[in-house]
Structure formats: structure tokens, C-alpha cells
Amino acid sequence: MRNFLLLLLLFTPAALFAQITITDKVVSVTDKKPIANASVFLSNSKVGNMLLKDGSFTLSNVKNGQYDLVITCIGFEPLHQNIFVRGNDIQLPTIALKNKTSLLGKVKINGGKRKRDYKRERYIRIFTREFLGRTKNAAECKILNPDVLQFEYDESTDRMHAT
Asked: Which residues form the signal peptide (predicted)?
């Protein structure tokens, strides 16, 4: 009996300070494809990681408690989910992120045909890269009506304004 109490006292602190692991996979709600390179973290803690190419993640060294799991990725709505950690590793069900829709303010449409303008083509490439981003998800996006975009470029400030 005495040895049992000694063993119990030795292992109690280890059980109280056990480090938990949270694992999951994140996909797009529209096509169910894995989302890579998104940020995942537990707010009010120092625990965070990036999603792998297959959309999976692992958060290690999580302590017991209640957390707000936050997943963010460009092109998707941020996700917040309450997590309760109580001594066991957690395998969450697959999470699906919603695509984020960006609305343009003002669109001015001009009629008539345009001659080939190499500066304009360059401006469209710059605009697309800056507006959509440079991620794998952005590479799958396309501006369907680039002909309605108008550009003003100020060489003195090296700034481009698009409407």
C-alpha cells in the first residue's frame, strides 16, 4: 500500500501537466480540396502552426483549458471554434472554410474597341497579382472581365490606381 501511494504521488504531477496534441484537416467548403499554408493557432496561448500541403495540422504542447481555435487563410473567411482540452489528445472532424468574396466599389464601363496596349496588359498583371495574391489558391482565381478595369499610373510616385 505504501509503494502504491508513493507511485501515485510520483505520477500525479505528470498527469496534471500533460501536454496535449490537437490534430485536424482543413478543406475548402466548395470543392473539398485541402487548404495549404493557412495559419492555425489557439488564441490566448503561444500554440500555433501552419497547415501542411494536405491540409492537415498538429498543435503540440497544449495545456488543459478552454481555447478559441483560429484558422485564417487569404481568400477564405476566418474560422473560430471553441476547444475544450481536458487531458486527452484531440482529433477534430475535418473543418471546411468558406471562400471569401470581395466586392469592388465602382466599375466604370466604356464602350468601343481598344487597340493592343502593352502597358495595360502589364497593369492587369500587376493588378491581378496584388488584388488576388500569390498563393496557390490565388493562382486558381481569374478576373473574368479585365476589360472593364481602368488604370491610372503616376510615374512620380510609382503608384497605380485601378477602378
From this structure: 1-18
For residue 2, pLDDT over 70 is answered with no
Question: If you ran DSSP here, which 8-state letter would residue 151 be given?
Answer: E
CA distances from 155 to 73, 149, 152, 159 (A): 33, 19, 10, 7
- State the DSSP code for 62: E
Q: Please check whether residue 82 is in contact with residue 69, taking contact to mean a CB–CB distance below 8 angstroms.
A: yes
Q: Are the C-beta atoms of residues 13 and 80 closer than 8 Å to each other? A: no
User: What does the pLDDT look like over 106-162, one tens digit per residue?
Assistant: 766 666 555 567 788 888 888 888 888 888 888 888 888 888 888 888 888 888 888
Structural domains of the chain ordered from first start:
2-97 (2.60.40.10), 118-162 (no CATH)
Looking at the chain, the whole-number percentage of residues with pLDDT higher than 90 is 36
Residues 29, 98 contacting (CB under 8 angstroms): yes
The model's pLDDT over 36-77, given as tens digits with 9 standing for 90+, comes to 888 999 988 889 999 999 999 999 999 999 999 999 998 899
